[in-house]
Amino acid sequence: MTSSNNPRQLAFLALQTIYRRGQFADIALDKHLNQMCLSPVDRRLATELVYGCVRRARSLDALIDQLAKKPANQQPPDLRIILHLGLYQLGYLTQIPAAAGVNTTVELARHSSLTGLTGLVNGILRQYLRQCSDQISPKAVPPEIVTSELVTSEPVTPKGHSPFFQGLDGLRIPPTN
Fold first, then answer.
1. Which residue, 42, 81, 141, 160, has fewest beta-carbon neighbours within 10 Å?
2. Tens of pLDDT along 29-48?
3. What is the pLDDT of residue 45?
4. Do the beta carbons of residue 31 and residue 49 sit within 8 Å?
């Protein structure tokens, strides 16, 4: 994983700049995009990761609070950023397979200052996936209930979040591009 062509590494560096130095997201992102040679697809992924993590920071912190032993605000800053990136990929980016989201996030932790915390990162992300899959198991709900829910309910949240996560998803603010 080299930093010269990795959109997740770029997003990590940009988020460090945003959170540590208080720089505006667009300025930090542009600075890092100009320093790295990325394909247009990777530039779009890095942009989505940065803006998505900034936009959903509170929701992602609430997820960390639920999944980790320590609350998000007591986690090391770099660990918190990496968990934001991983949880954002798993919860909001449907085009990224779950295994790839977990693996790339663990690799990002391994190649940053968090080498000793890769097991924690892996565990938190896999716990999130287990909780999500438990909520959307097809065997858990009889088909007639699913059919009636589709007709009468509000839209389903991304990747079948539990009721707790559904409340957080109400905080969504659509991007203004």
1. 141
2. 999 999 999 999 999 999 99
3. 96
4. no
Give the span between the Cα atoms of 93 and 52, in whole angstroms: 10
Residue 159 identity: K
Q: Give the span between the Cα atoms of 174 and 52, in whole angstroms.
A: 10
Q: Is 155 helix (H, G, I), strand (E, B) or coil?
A: coil
Burial (CB count <10 Å: 0-12, 13-18, 19+), residue 21: exposed
- Residue appearing with tokens 């932790």: 109
**Residue whose pair of structure tokens reads 């957080």 in the numeric block:** 168
- 58 burial via Cβ count (<10 Å: 0-12, 13-18, 19+): exposed
What is the spatial distance between Cα 144 and Cα 126, in angstroms, rounded to a whole number? 31
| DSSP letter (8 states) at residue 83 | H
In CATH, 57-177 is 1.10.940.10: yes
pTM of the model: 0.74
- Closest by CA to 12, choosing from 85, 93, 95, is 85
